[in-house]
Write a structure and sequence with these properties.
Layout (H helix, E strand, L loop, with lengths): L1 H9 L5 H12 L2 H17 L4 H69 L20 H18 L7 H9 L1 H64 L1
Helix pairs in contact: 4-7, 5-7
Protein name: Suppressor APC domain-containing protein 2
Keywords: Coiled coil
Organism: Manacus vitellinus (golden-collared manakin)
């Protein structure tokens, strides 16, 4: 009986492999392998807790840098457009002042011509008002200063500066608008040149008239003095 039991235990039976396989499943069950792998992956992902945050931070910083560059370009363009608008306002203000100055000059030129006409009708110095006819005596120095400043300004602005390449590209881009502005500037320069020439000519003419007026007054006083002298001699002769 003992040998039969020993032989039965020694001989591999049909269920022996199944039993061993079953023991292997108990000792090393498959779900534990899967859990270990998952645990390993989880441990691998959790080994660097800041890796995902670092990548997200880098992406956010790159996007912020792109937005900053874009906003910088837009801000520069807006700033330049604002400067152009201010310069246009200055030109329009100057043009309005020049129109007012032209009207003022024409009015005073007409007054001067009227005074010249009346001056030709006077025969005695007593007909002249005290202080003379001139209403521009105190304004002549200011007029000369205005003419000088205007002439210097036109001579200075008549020399165009060399534009930078960036400005040249911008002018090329907005050429339709700049063409109209350039025409207005050229017209303004021409008006300023004509006004300066006209004022200079009139100033010289006024100076000449003042000299002629002084000479005429001197002649009138000399004539009156001779008349008084002749009258006194005639009275003494009668006496």
């Amino acid at each position: 009986g003992g040998s039969g039991l020993a032989g039965l235990m020694a001989a591999p039976g049909p269920g022996t492999g199944a039993q061993r396989s079953g023991w292997n499943l108990v000792v090393l069950p498959r779900p534990l392998c899967g859990d270990a792998k998952s645990a390993g992956q989880s441990q691998g992902d959790g080994g660097h807790p800041g890796a995902g945050d670092t990548r997200r931070h880098q992406r956010g910083r790159a996007e912020h840098r792109r937005h900053t560059i874009t906003n910088g370009v837009d801000f520069s363009m807006l700033k330049y457009m604002k400067e152009l608008e201010q310069e246009k306002d200055f030109l329009l203000q100057g043009l309005e002042l020049i129109d007012q100055a032209r009207d003022w000059y024409h009015q005073h030129i007409q007054l001067m011509q009227e005074h010249q006409r009346l001056l030709g009708k006077k025969r005695s110095s007593t007909d002249f008002p005290e202080g003379g006819w001139s209403h521009l005596g105190r304004l002549v120095p200011k007029l000369q200063e205005v003419n000088r400043c205007l002439g210097e300004f036109l001579s200075t602005t008549g020399k165009p500066a060399n534009p930078s390449s960036a400005l040249s590209r911008l002018v090329t881009t907005v050429s339709p608008a700049s063409t109209g502005s350039q025409q207005a500037i050229n017209m303004l320069k021409e008006q300023n040149r004509l006004l300066t020439k006209e004022v200079t000519d009139k100033s010289e003419r006024i100076t000449q008239l003042e000299q002629e007026k002084s000479a005429l007054i001197k002649q009138l006083f000399e004539a009156r003095a001779r008349t008084n002298h002749e009258a006194s001699q005639l009275d003494s002769t009668f006496i």
